Amino acid sequence: MPMAFVLTLAALLAADPVSAPGTEACATCHPAETKLHERSRMAHAMMPALASPFSQNLPDRPLRESADGYSFVYRRTLAGVEVTAERGGDKADGLIEWVLGAGAQGQTPLVEAGGRVAESRVSYFPQLHQYGITIGQHPGASPNALAALGWMQSAHDLQACIGCHASAITRDLQPVIPGVQCQRCHLGADEHARDTSHHPLNPGKLPAPEQVRFCGNCHRVKPPVDDGQLENVRFQPLRLMKSRCFASGRLACTTCHPAHQDAVRNKSSFYNEKCHSCHDSRAAHVDARQTGDCIACHMPYVQLHVALRFTDHYIRVVKTGDLPADTIRQRGVN
Length: 334
Prior knowledge:
This protein is an alpha+beta fold. The protein contains 15 helices and 15 strands. The radius of gyration is 22 Å and the shape is globular.
């Protein structure tokens, strides 16, 4: 893959954060695309703590870990949301300035504590209207108050985390432009805003395999552990690249997902049309499935957690045992 299409940390670092053009600079010439994008989840992949559903739905009473664990007390301040984890005489304080996630499935804060940054142990799940332990962190009681605040991030982890949830950051990893904005995917948009003779990258014009890998810079093309983890269904490019449809060289992310807006939900006819553009349904099926829901059979919904549900982008004839039967869900059914 050409190096120009790899989203490196260097591409996110703003040499002059004050003068880095924002989305409003693009709106002048591209109003329709900008308006669509402003309503998308990607545009709100990172937000100030006080503006987040995590902050706005905090209960008046403390939250608490299970197994007689630590309690969490939150206080809204001008600087953000202060949090204290406490049990007995063991106490640790942190500050939340930024929250990750648009709030569609979950929101997880970044907690500054003791000169480091942690992935908060507590997340908010809007569909359940509940707070709970962040997915991937251990259940039960934490060993100490600092650990109760969250999983401390290494510099590398933090770069990857903020790098995919923000569009520009400073060299000390402070977000300048939170969320996935124009310049995050259209590399060179900043230069283009200052001088229109410089043309930014248009991922929509990349060959299909390169576009999938481009999106995979954040949505992942390699598993974090190994290929056997059920949780890998979260990573759409990784799963898609296992498919014969991808091997054809014709299937890109934007084949099914229009740029600058959220994925179409619960509309089988929309996706059937995409499938039928390559597949003759009459040849594929000789029964009522000709007019059925293609992706319901070939890209099932997988329930990873009571609050998290993903479409498996590994397109195939799903056989018994491919996925745990109790994780498969029908679209539009809770």
